[in-house]
Design a protein that fits this description.
Layout: H1 5-39, H2 46-68, H3 75-87, H4 91-115, H5 117-124, E1 129-134, E2 137-142, E3 151-154, E4 164-166, E5 170-174, H6 176-179, E6 185-188, E7 192-193, E8 198-199, E9 204-208, H7 216-229, H8 233-260, H9 263-271, H10 276-295, E10 298-300, H11 303-311, E11 314-318, H12 319-323, E12 329-334, H13 341-352, H14 358-369, E13 378-383, E14 387-392, E15 395-400, H15 402-406, H16 413-425, E16 428-434, E17 437-445, H17 452-461, E18 466-470, H18 475-485, E19 489-491, H19 496-507, E20 512-516, H20 522-527, E21 530-534, H21 541-545, E22 548-550, H22 557-591, H23 597-615, H24 633-660, H25 668-702, H26 709-731, H27 739-771
Parallel strand pairs: 11-18, 11-20, 18-19, 20-21, 21-22
Antiparallel strand pairs: 1-2, 1-3, 3-9, 4-7, 4-9, 5-6, 5-8, 10-22, 12-17, 13-14, 14-15, 15-16, 16-17
Helix pairs in contact: 1-2, 1-4, 2-3, 2-4, 3-4, 3-9, 4-10, 4-23, 5-7, 8-9, 8-10, 9-22, 9-23, 10-22, 10-23, 11-22, 13-14, 17-22, 22-23, 24-25, 24-27, 25-26, 26-27
Family: Belongs to the cation transport ATPase (P-type) (TC 3.A.3) family. Type IB subfamily.
Domain Hemerythrin-like: 636-769
GO molecular function: ATP binding; ATP hydrolysis activity; cadmium ion transmembrane transporter activity; metal ion binding; P-type zinc transporter activity
């Protein structure tokens, strides 16, 4: 639609809505005035006649407009009933019908407005102005005039106009309009802010990374506009239904007249024959469901997508960025002599602040967690898929692939050794060069999302029959993840073209949804019956190709969206079946002569009101997804931080395994004793505190009989393994261990590391579930 026509269409919609409200009031007054005239023995009661004529004119215009748009024009029935009432001198019945027609249209506008409230709110909050820093001070400009690199200031209560880099030390932001999260979030210097979020704190400084047209909120506005304009198959069915309903209603009315010889019976049949339950209830329920989903950060672009999602039987997931965080965690820093690991990370993260790549953002977050002071980069240039170059604090820095960092130079022995080490451990890495010299490699590993296991269990519980994991990774890596999460099938080493073929194959066996993240997933999303994109970022290709976009980067919103869509479709069908059944019953009663036209109009209005308000139930969240979080988000974050602080302990145990794997040597005894102290003084106190203080509190939150029993059992196994290691270490005090003893010590350490990591994952998932916080 041309931009110039949009304000005119909005004005027309506004006038139409108020026209129906005004008509309902005017006709109600005429109806009352006609009653007063009848009491005064006025004949005929002119106010009733005026009411019918007024509504006849409006209904005639709307019917002609509907027929011009090739719609069924069910208002023809209302025209016939009002015209018939005038011809038969049933002025009261005609006036009542006119009032019911006008009030029904007003009710339709009201219910549609309520149903689209969340979508309209998203559009209303679209950023319109920006404040740009210039030499002379600050100038106010339209958001569309912002250019990449502009220095902006966002005042308190204003919307962030474009996607940008936060330059202020901290910022307090209300992101509810984009993500559906009600709590404000604190952002730190160097974080990337999405357009459309509201500044809930003091003024903040921002560097524009995108134009307004390319930013997050502009993409959301495009998708919301599409959601408002599109029609669901259920709604299109209503239009087709009216094509045969009108002749059927006329036939029943004609038979009632022919058999009884009473023309008023025919009039009464037409009065109750309007198919409002299907024409109104189905669209209201579908739009209400889309609106509810939008409030929860789930943007369903149109009614067809909602119905396809409700019917989904197969779910195909891309692995990276969907099942995993896509933001690889730093697990180690390797540096050649002359470079300090923290300084390498600081410079790399400083440069990565201007990149939107997930790995770059993970490095920035890790640098902040270590309290490293980041600098604002200059002359940054990003090569997609390779990395960045730029100036940081007067130094030339390159971070990314080995090819980019070497810049044409031959690979050195240090880098070649690190590549082999990364391949053996299944790690990826970002190489770093400083002033043309190889400075190190940042070792990275992707992490499964905290909400992934729960989301998959909930999807199966909701009726999804088959789950498939798609990945470009090696078969062994993909199978390990798939088995851990309980997928029905895994397809590894797939190119983007292979993913499209796999999705099409799944579609042949049933309605299939594809969940993905990233540009390379866009073709597969488009190939699926319903494409679902994770964590929309403006006009990203995956978000544009998808039918459903999870605006908040959480996989557990997917089963919630599935429940909302299925419930909305069920309510629409329920409203239609109940309403049409009641209308058919009313037509039969009217045909038999037991329902006069005036009473018939009241009955039909009652049916309309009942089915519309039933359809509006779709605005309420499903019972199983109403918020039941009981743990404060801050507490959950603190508990997870404790696990993060224990990561060096696990790294130390893994280092000991490697050391003891070297065979018999003089330092083995010292290493065993050192590891025993680490377990006793650092690991076990944390586990005992959890068992004695935290678990009783969590048990009250989870409820049920012994809800923490399985977690406590894991604690006991940790204590047992730790005690066994300590006993062996004591037995070897001052004695050189033999190969069998070293083998047993390594076995205990490997077992302890594995169970502690699993235990941490279980606890973190529980904290996430209880707090309902964002990962």
């Amino acid at each position: 639609m041309p931009a110039a026509s949009k304000p005119a269409e909005r004005d027309a919609t506004y006038l139409t809505r108020h026209l129906h409200k005004s008509l309902a009031v005017i006709i109600a007054l005429l109806l009352a005035a006609g009653g007063a005239a009848r009491l005064l023995n006025a004949s005929p009661p002119l106010p009733w006649i005026v009411a019918v004529l007024l509504m006849l004119v409006v209904a005639s215009v709307e019917s002609v407009q509907a027929l011009a748009r090739r719609k069924a024009g069910v208002d023809v029935l209302a025209l016939l009933t009002m015209a018939g009432a005038l011809l038969l001198e049933q002025y009261l019945a005609g006036a009542v019908i006119a009032f019911m027609f006008a009030s029904g249209r007003a009710l339709e506008e009201y219910s549609s407005g309520r149903a689209q409230q969340a979508l309209s709110a998203l559009l209303a909050r679209s950023p319109r102005v920006a404040h740009r820093r210039v030499r002379s001070g600050i100038e106010e400009i339209a958001a569309e005039q912002v250019r990449i690199g502009d220095q902006l200031i966002v005042k308190s209560g204003e919307a962030v106009p474009v996607d940008g880099l936060l330059l202020s030390a901290t910022a307090e932001l209300d992101e509810s309009a984009v993500t559906g999260e009600s709590l404000s979030r604190r952002r730190m210097r160097g974080d990337q802010l999405m357009s459309g979020v509201i500044n809930a704190g003091g003024p903040l400084d921002l560097q524009a990374l995108k134009t307004a047209q390319e930013s997050t909120y502009a993409g959301i506005v495009r998708m919301v506009t599409e959601a408002q304009a599109a029609k669901a198959p259920f709604t299109r069915l209503a239009d087709r239904y009216a094509l045969w309903f009108i002749p059927a209603a006329l036939l029943v009315a004609g038979l009632a007249w022919a058999i009884s010889g009473d023309v008023l019976r025919a009039l009464a049949v037409l009065v109750v024959a309007t198919p409002c339950p299907l024409i109104l209830a189905a669209p209201v329920a579908i739009i209400a469901s889309i609106s509810l989903a939008a409030r929860r950060g789930i943007l369903i672009k149109n009614g067809a997508a909602l119905e396809q999602l409700a019917n989904a039987k197969n779910l195909v997931f891309d692995k990276t960025g969907t099942l995993t965080t896509g933001r690889q965690q730093l697990v180690g820093i390797e540096t050649p002599p002359g470079f300090h690991p923290d300084e390498v990370l600081r410079l790399a993260a400083s440069l990565d602040q201007v990149s939107q790549h997930n790995t770059a953002q993970s490095l920035v977050a890790e640098a902040r967690r270590r309290d490293l002071v980041l600098s604002i980069p200059e002359q940054a240039q990003e090569t997609p898929g390779e990395g960045l170059r730029g100036q940081v604090g007067g130094k030339s820095v390159a971070v990314g692939s080995l090819t980019l960092v070497l810049n044409g130079a031959a690979i050195d022995h240090w880098s070649e050794t690190r590549l082999r080490y990364m391949a053996l451990r299944g790690l990826s890495g970002a190489f770093v060069a400083i002033d043309g010299q190889m400075a190190g490699v940042l070792l990275l590993a992707d992490q499964i999302r905290l909400d992934t296991p729960r989301a998959l269990r909930e999807l199966h519980r909701a009726g999804v029959e088959r789950t498939v994991m798609l990945s470009g990774d090696r078969q062994d890596v993909a199978e390990t993840v798939a088995l851990a999460l309980g997928f029905d099938a895994v397809l590894a080493e797939r190119s983007p073209a292979d993913k499209v073929a796999a999705v099409k194959a799944e579609c042949e066996s049933g309605t299939t949804a594809m969940v993905g993240d990233g540009i390379n997933d866009a073709p597969a999303l488009a190939a699926a019956d319903v494409g679902i994109a994770m964590g929309a970022r403006g006009a990203g290709a995956s978000a544009e190709a998808a039918d459903v976009v999870l605006l908040v980067d959480r996989l557990d919103r997917l089963p919630e969206g599935l429940h909302i869509s299925r419930r909305g479709r069920q309510i629409a069908l329920q409203s239609v079946m109940a309403g049409m059944g009641l209308s058919a019953l009313a037509m039969l009663i009217a045909a038999l002569g037991y329902l006069p036209p005036v009473i018939g109009a009241l009955v039909q209005e009652g049916i309309d009101v009942a089915v519309i308000f039933n359809a509006l139930r779709a605005l309420r969240p499903p019972a199983q997804h109403r918020s039941a979080a009981v743990m404060p988000v801050e507490l959950a974050d603190r508990l997870r931080l404790q696990h993060s602080e224990l990561q060096p302990v696990l790294d130390r145990l893994e280092q000991a395994c490697n050391t003891l794997n070297g065979g018999l040597h003089l330092s083995a005894t010292n290493e065993i004793n050192a590891v025993s102290r680490v377990i006793r003084d650092e690991l076990l106190p944390h586990e005992r505190e959890d068992e004695e203080q935290l678990y009783p509190t969590l048990a009250a939150m989870v409820r049920g009989f012994d809800p923490m029993g399985a977690m406590s059992h894991t604690h006991r196994e940790i204590f047992r393994l730790a005690r066994r290691f300590e006993q062996l270490a004591d037995d070897l005090a001052g004695v050189q261990p033999d190969e069998l003893q070293l083998q047993e010590l390594r076995r205990l350490l490997f077992s302890l590391i594995a169970i502690v990591r699993l235990h941490f994952a279980q606890e973190e998932e529980l904290y996430f579930t209880l707090s309902d916080s964002q990962s």
